[in-house]
Design a protein that fits this description.
Blueprint (H helix, E strand, L loop, with lengths): L6 E7 L7 E3 L2 E3 L16 E7 L5
Antiparallel strand pairs: 1-4, 2-3
Length: about 55
């Protein structure tokens, strides 16, 4: 059985200049991943990643 749904995930990035989140009634810069997270994600931001496979 094949699945044609998108694969979703997160990529670690050092700077996330273009993102804002709505928290506690205000727009704020997103928080960095905590220091106790996986090594590649520590003190970094996570951005949404999506992979689509198109077929005809």
């Amino acid at each position: 059985m094949s699945s044609y749904g998108p694969l979703l995930g997160a990529l670690p990035v050092i700077d996330n200049k273009n993102s804002m989140i709505y928290r506690e009634g205000q727009w704020k810069k997103p928080l960095k991943t905590p220091k106790n997270a996986a090594k590649n994600y520590r003190n970094k931001h996570s951005i949404l990643a999506m992979e689509l496979t198109l077929t005809d």
